[in-house]
Amino acid sequence: MGLLALGTPLSWDETKPLAEHIRYHGITQFLNTWDRWKDRTGKGLLWGDEIEYMIVSYDDDNRTALLSLRQTEILKKLQSVTLDPKLEQLKPKDCTAIPTFHPEYGRYMIESTPGCPFTGNPKDLISVEADMRFRRKIIRSHLLPHELPLTVTSWPRLGALDDGKLPFTDPETWPDTQKSSSRSQYVGELLTNPHARFPTLTANIRARRGSLVDIRVPLFIDQNTNVPDTEQKHLSNGIPTPAKPLPGTPSIHMDAMAFGMGCCCLQITFQAWNVDEARRVYDALVPVAPIMLALTAASPAFRGYLADVDARWNVIAASVDDRTEEERGLKPLKSDRYSIPKSRYDSVDLYISNDPRNKEKYHDTHVPMDEGVKQRLTEHGVDNHLASHLAHLFIRDPLVQFSETIDQDDQASMDHFENIQSTNWQTIRFKPPPVNSPIGWRVEFRSMEVQMTDYENAAFSIFIVLLTRAILSFDLNFYMPISEVDDNMQRAQQRDAAARNSFHFRRNVFPHDKPRERFDLTSRPVSPPAGQSPTSPTSASIRSESISRVNGTASSSSKPTTPTGSRRNSGDHLRPSGSSQLRSSVSAPPTPRRTGSSASRCSSEDEDIGEEDETAQMTLDEIINGKGDHFPGLMGVVNAYLNSLNVDVGTKCELRRYLDLIKWRSKGRLVTPANWIRKFITTHPDYKHDSVVSQSITYDLAKAVDEIERGVRPCPELLGHNYVGSGPTGCL
Ligand code: ADP
Ligand code: MG
Ligand code: MG
Ligand code: MG
Ligand code: MG
Ligand code: MG
After folding, report:
1. What is the pTM (predicted TM-score) of this model?
2. Confidence class of residue 520 from pLDDT cuts 50, 70 and 90?
């Protein structure tokens, strides 16, 4: 959750007059970092995940499962355990470092990250699951006997009050519409992390907005669902509704930040060699974000009801929507500066790379900018794309400021910058280097929902890491209009989107200066199937090209030193050839990419495929596994990348285990967590076909999710037949 400095938080009325000061110094701080880092090459790929857990307290006698509000005590314990040398002996041999644990928004939430970042070395990738499992085991081993560490995205009964009869938290908390920071009618103050940052964020969002947040998702309508007379009842078992409820249709209402920020997700952060590479990967991941949201969808129920959506995104976006009525376009602009189309939590609005393929026409939505900020940045020499990105983030006001840190040393702090940056919660985040740290430019992938098992969490993390390597290695082009990415975000949340929906995606992802045929790798598996020679023309051409590029780079004099405290060797052979600093030392023929004029590239591309046809609508299966002869799919490029490396067969097989999960899920042969949870609820004997997720159903669901993770309850429809759980107790 970013900064957790202690201090005296200011109210919204006290923060508002400081907004310009914070923005001004935030930009100064960015520019200082920019000057230090714009030409610097870092240590290349290092990456790590963040996994969020809910601590659930169950009672077998009463068949209840409640959110356990013991975050503070549990974290204290975990922090002391991780300092205890005894833990070193329990560490699986694949894990390099003792993990770290962090607080999150909900008082029932814990976040874990690896103790030191992973490399992109395939040997390192296949240890990711062990690292994740070690973290879960540490947490589990230090919970009370009736507590579970579950990785579910939305807690089905968060905010369900059942007429005041049953709480959903342990201990009980009740709403206080007069005094709580959210003023919610559904959730109490104790649900929120007590650190001053969180209640202040909650209260100041509400105060800035001028009203409680207003979250609505379409209700799943079943035979016996109680629908007000004023609203039409159409059974939802047919066609899924749009992800945002249409006016006058039944919806689930929520009114507090906790409904969104209290969801759990899976995030991945990658370090790039330099700022250009970070910007290139950022752009390429923008269209990938909704695709991965659909594939990981895991939240079919909110506030005790089944929703007609499968994913959390619109809920979390609305849960922190601090825009005033003027900014939301409900009133003419008078005291506010901008009309703002999106919440602070939403999908990316601008591509940021200077790649000539990043064309103006892809920016086809209204994106307000702080022109003063933009001018300062451009006058300092920051290019238009990056200046626009920052000027857009900086239309927002700071939400939490401590009185002790209003004046900062802009050479030694990034706090004012982070104040705005870290409360712009976009699908992808461009992270500048922290001050006084060897950490370089990074990109964070933020759209995915957390999965119930670490096998799945590892699979999605590995897939995204390999995809970034393929993007860089083959110089792939995923650009498409932002409006279509936004449309995909909505499609991704609809019920059963993974199996039913189609999504816009770019048809020709290959750089124009390389003939498409050379990448014709549709459905090519990692290891060639029997009868196919590994030196068949297509795979050989891509392999020899990549190996020579990669080898040439790795043996160059600019080879980076292994960072201290990092794992094994840092996978130098994975160093991509994209960065301009490295190109001169690459022994393979240099690729003409970006040296040719953008104009010639544009015109030939437009001749090649008409503008109308740059994107097509494809199923998830097609986007992942490929379509026809020309679109290899995201898995196709990942496979091609793996084929280009010198990876031993054993490691490839291990990686295959993870990649297969994504392949089969995108084909619909394995279901999403949302689909599985929905079915568990609707087929539960206590379910009354009224859309209500009762306490007893939630209890059985929590137990089942835990048993699946430990491997004591088979779940082949979700995980396939080879899943091995963390054992009968799941403890260390
Ligand atoms: P956030 O600000 O998004 O909450 P966290 O600190 O919780 O960030 O997590 C950041 C992730 O980035 C962790 O998984 C960590 O292992 C990883 N990480 C740490 N150092 C680097 C680095 N130099 N490059 C890339 N990732 C890193
Ligand atoms: Mg988090
Ligand atoms: Mg974090
Ligand atoms: Mg953090
Ligand atoms: Mg994060
Ligand atoms: Mg199109």
Report:
1. 0.89
2. very low
- DSSP E strands in 476-570: the ranges are 502-506
Nearest-atom number in ligand 1 for the CA of 439 is 23
From the CA of 270, give the closest atom in ligand 1: 25
Ligand 1 binding pocket includes 113 (Cβ within 6 Å): yes
pLDDT for residue 514: 61
Residue identifier of the C-alpha nearest atom 15 of ligand 1: 48
Q: What would the mean pLDDT of 390-408 be, rounded to a whole number?
A: 97
Cα-Cα-Cα-Cα dihedral of 688, 689, 690, 691, to 10°? 110
Question: What are the structural domains, with CATH classification, of the chain?
Answer: 9-462 (3.30.590.50)
What is the enclosing helix (H) or strand (E) of 13?
helix 12-15
Smallest Cα–Cα separation from 306: which of 672, 665, 688?
Answer: 688
Q: How many CB atoms lie within 10 A of CB 201?
A: 24
- Going 282 to 432 to 125 to 458, the CA torsion angle's sign is negative
List helix spans (H) across 442-536. 454-473, 482-493, 497-500
Give the whole-angstrom CA distance, residue 335 versus residue 56: 45
pLDDT of 118 strictly over 80: yes
Radius of gyration of the chain (CA): 25
Using a pLDDT cut of 70, give the percent of the chain over it: 86
Q: Is 49 in the pocket of ligand 1 (CB under 6 A)?
A: yes
Residue of minimum CA distance from atom 5 in ligand 1: 50
Distance from residue 364's CA to the centre of ligand 6 (Å): 13
What share of the chain in percent tops pLDDT 90? 81
